[in-house]
């Protein structure tokens, strides 16, 4: 599949490419058929999703691409509403005594006037299923198994193609998964997939395509290639995401502002430091959402005012840090200076001070290296401010929780992303250990921050990003079980 969502899920032109596997997504109305298509295509804008029956009125298709070629075509269909009445009508149109087979009975119905009238919706579904290789039957696992569902399945089975039931809403406390499994088995449907479209299991797509491959062995190779491609895309997304987080952490760790050593100026500079760090985090959040094909509005909390009652998303609020068990240093408690640390960097003063003073006196400012300039600044009564360790730790915890949430979120999800549960109890390692080496190195390398005035790219920084990203990956893998 292509990384580009527009390429991944494109509305279909009427002619389908040869060789692609065609799947009709069918089922009772309001069970999450359109939602399933959104999640499988990673496209939150596909079709229309509403909590009311009859939302999808027409067949709409999308393509899943592998290496720019269509591997699978998925067709969304309107929900079935009155399978029972249609089954009765079929018995009138093609009485059992005639002994027509299933597809012939369905064909006779499609040619009847009622296919354009009372049963127009049903006709659209059955016509599409007849044209496809198989059907995915979406079930709201909270529904009790009723006669209407059995009738629906009888109608769909009459099309003569394999059907794979997909149980949706599996995280609901009201789910009736076992009841459904045994009812489906009695109808001869033994391969079933559990796939909650809002929070799909991490291996959910694999299971879906594996079971389809069992039902459709002539398409097994295509489905295997699709699965491999999905796995490759998933790894690439994670790698890119962790690199984005590592880049941001290095930028903020290396950020260093200097100010005259007067309380008022230091406070102003601390505010400037906080604003730069917040903005940098915001950019990262936007980039992460985009990388996972979600929209800014999916994660709205951070857009609320940072001051005021929504302190929990303020990077520099002492309570936000305490809430995830982070130690709050003196700087954090000091109000106006919250989150900023006065630089403790003194190395080199005794070695270099005399030389530096001499250099400055002799007008050799240009010849003094960056470190020298900073020392000179200190000698002239300037102080440097950096972002507190606790804030760096919170940034790492927060962004890792966001990556974990994005990996688990289906593109059908409508509610806001909530990372609070993923942040709790996950900070142990980050809190106990000293800051990762790469961040310590960044602290001593202000030129590494893209937030600084002059930022030259450096191979050492690139290497630090790589190492920090792999450290973050270990952190992410150490997470507990998936949330429900
Ligand atoms: N909690 C939860 N809600 C879901 C899930 N799947 C779908 N929904 C919600 O269920 C409602 C119906 O979803 P749709 O995808 O529109 O269902 P549909 O089967 O396409 O409906 P029609 O087109 O009307 O037949 C929407 O409000 C979805 O947000 C799920 O797995 N979990
Ligand atoms: Mg729909």
Report on this model:
The chain is α/β, with parallel strands linked by helices. It folds into two domains: 5-215, 3-Layer(aba) Sandwich (Rossmann fold); 236-477, no CATH class. It has helices at residues 5-8, 33-41, 83-93, 102-110, 120-131, 147-157, 177-186, 204-215, 220-254, 263-291, 318-323, 330-333, 349-361, 370-379, 389-408, 420-423, 428-432, 437-443, 459-477, and strands at residues 21-27, 60-66, 69-76, 134-140, 163-168, 193-194, 256-260, 340-342, 382-387. The strands form two sheets. The chain has a six-stranded mixed β-sheet with strand order 2-3-1-4-5-6, with helices on both faces. α9 (220-254) packs parallel to α18 (437-443) and α13 crosses α14 (370-379). The radius of gyration is 30 Å and the shape is elongated. The chain starts with a helix and ends in a 7-residue tail after the last helix. Mean pLDDT is 83; it is low at 1-17, 303-311, 344-368 and 480-484. The structure holds guanosine-5'-triphosphate and magnesium ion. Magnesium ion binds next to α2.
Strand order of the largest sheet: 2-3-1-4-5-6
Largest sheet: 6 strands, mixed
Number of domains: 2
What characteristic shape results from the CA principal axes?
A: elongated
Classify the beta-strand content into a percent band.
5-15%
Give the N-to-C terminal Cα separation. Answer: 28 Å
Order of helices and strands: HEHEEHHHEHEHEHHEHHHEHHEHHHHH
Per DSSP E runs of 2 or more residues, the count of β-strands stands at: 9
Which ligands are bound? guanosine-5'-triphosphate, magnesium ion
What is the radius of gyration? 30 Å
- The residue-averaged pLDDT reads 83
Residue stretches low in confidence (pLDDT < 50, at least 5 long) are: 1-17, 303-311, 344-368, 480-484
Estimated structural class: alpha/beta
Into which percent range does the helicity of residues fall?
40-55%
Number of H- or I-type helical stretches: 19
């Amino acid at each position: 599949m292509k990384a580009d969502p527009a390429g991944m899920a494109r509305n279909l032109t009427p002619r389908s490419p040869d060789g692609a596997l065609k799947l009709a997504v069918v089922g009772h109305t309001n069970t999450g058929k359109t939602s399933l298509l959104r999640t499988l295509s990673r496209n939150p804008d596909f079709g229309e999703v509403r909590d009311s029956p009859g939302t999808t009125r027409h067949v709409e298709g999308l393509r899943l691409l592998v290496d720019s070629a269509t591997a699978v075509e998925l067709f969304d269909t309107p929900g079935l509403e009155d399978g029972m009445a249609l089954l009765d009508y079929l018995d009138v149109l093609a009485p059992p005594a005639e002994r027509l087979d299933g597809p012939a009975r369905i064909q006779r119905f499609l040619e009847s006037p009622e296919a354009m009238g009372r049963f127009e919706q049903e006709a659209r579904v059955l016509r599409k299923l007849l044209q496809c290789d198989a059907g995915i039957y979406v079930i709201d696992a909270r529904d009790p198994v009723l006669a209407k569902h059995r009738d629906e399945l009888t109608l769909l089975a009459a099309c003569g193609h394999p059907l794979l039931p997909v149980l949706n809403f599996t995280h609901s406390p009201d789910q009736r998964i076992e009841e459904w499994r045994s009812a489906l088995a009695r109808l001869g449907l033994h391969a079933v997939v559990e796939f909650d479209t809002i929070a799909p299991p991490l291996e959910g797509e694999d299971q879906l395509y594996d079971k389809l491959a069992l039902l459709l062995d002539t398409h097994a190779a295509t489905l295997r290639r699709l699965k491999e491609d999905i796995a490759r895309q998933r790894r690439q997304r994670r790698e890119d995401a962790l690199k984005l987080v590592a880049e941001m952490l290095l930028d903020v760790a290396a950020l260093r502002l200097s100010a005259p050593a007067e309380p008022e100026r230091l406070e102003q500079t601390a505010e400037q430091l906080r604003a730069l760090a917040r903005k940098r985090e915001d950019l990262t959040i936007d980039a992460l959402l985009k990388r996972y094909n979600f929209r800014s509005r999916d994660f709205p909390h951070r857009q609320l005012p940072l001051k005021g009652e929504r302190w929990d998303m303020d990077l520099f609020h002492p309570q936000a840090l305490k809430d995830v068990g982070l130690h709050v240093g003196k700087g954090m408690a000091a109000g106006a200076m919250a989150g900023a640390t006065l630089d403790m960097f003194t190395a080199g003063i005794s070695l270099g001070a005399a030389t530096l003073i001499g250099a400055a006196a002799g007008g050799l400012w240009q010849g003094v290296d960056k470190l020298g300039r900073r020392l000179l600044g200190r000698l002239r009564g300037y102080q440097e401010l950096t972002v507190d360790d606790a804030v760096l730790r919170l940034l790492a915890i927060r962004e890792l929780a966001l990556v974990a949430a994005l990996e688990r979120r289906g593109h059908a999800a409508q509610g806001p992303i909530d990372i609070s549960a993923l942040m709790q109890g996950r900070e142990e390692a980050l809190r106990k250990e000293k800051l990762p080496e790469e961040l310590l190195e960044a602290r001593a390398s202000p030129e590494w921050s893209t937030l600084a005035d002059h930022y030259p790219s450096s191979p050492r920084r690139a290497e630090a990003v790589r190492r920090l990203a792999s450290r973050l990956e270990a952190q992410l893998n150490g997470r507990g079980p998936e949330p429900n």
